[in-house]
């Protein structure tokens, strides 16, 4: 039976969003989640998904149709969306392979724990901050399983409301040029700390900022050790534009090379944003599925995975150097010639990630601009 002509398509799913919130621009986040889920199933031999805030059900459809999930628990707190969800899932999913419920996500997660019903992938696509659900979602996840969190709380993580960030994330967020990355690192940092409090550890699989929304997928594993060096502070000097990381042991002793005192954001995650091996496997699958845009994005993520925990917008380099905005590829090439690591970043097409100091970036940018004339 063909779906109605006015239904939407995304991947292999056809659906009617009805009155549910549906953001087409967020498709890239769903694409990456499906790829990660499919890789997980290939590696582990099974995939049971808990879609805690399903909306119209498009994620649930794609987890089964594309990633091969054997079972999907489809939950949506708004019971008024039941007719939409029921119709969408009935049209696209195999019978007796899913369950639809309408309850708050927190008691749902605890119910899973009490029943010893643990999931391979838990998707928490919340509005605002996901903090009310981070700790409880950990209780429903299988050891080795994946958790996928969303944050639309860019004002708070961007340093515009530092007291609010302290209240919500337990971290003080300051404003600086790399706040898009800060949003991802604050979110990962909270998940790391919450897991560590339970004697567990998380490993980032991938981290995505699509221009409006932060999404991070992590794997839950047994804690081998607690590495506080990856959970610390980011220091930024408003005077010279230089970044540096700061550990807990350095608190009270953080100075900039220019002699000024930088501002600190954190605590937050300072380790890799992505798992390189997982990205490679996902990219290979994206190529097999003929998803070239995802493959390109995953390649870019692989380049930035182990770079320093900040980026430099080209506009900021131009402003500080009182010059035209430098051409990105010329700047990257110039930095690499000087033996610095440098790459593009998915966080901002007009920014770079590098371990070169800001002073060197300015020097190389001036030379690049001069040669381009």
TrEMBL record:
It holds the Pfam family TRM. It comes from the Bacteria. Gene3D superfamilies: N2,N2-dimethylguanosine tRNA methyltransferase, C-terminal domain, Vaccinia Virus protein VP39. Keywords: Methyltransferase, RNA-binding, S-adenosyl-L-methionine, Transferase, tRNA processing, tRNA-binding. One of its GO terms (molecular function) is tRNA (guanine) methyltransferase activity. One of its GO terms (biological process) is tRNA N2-guanine methylation. This is tRNA (Guanine-N1)-methyltransferase. It comes from Vasconcelosia minhoensis LEGE 07310. The lineage of its organism: Bacteria, Bacillati, Cyanobacteriota, Cyanophyceae, Nodosilineales.
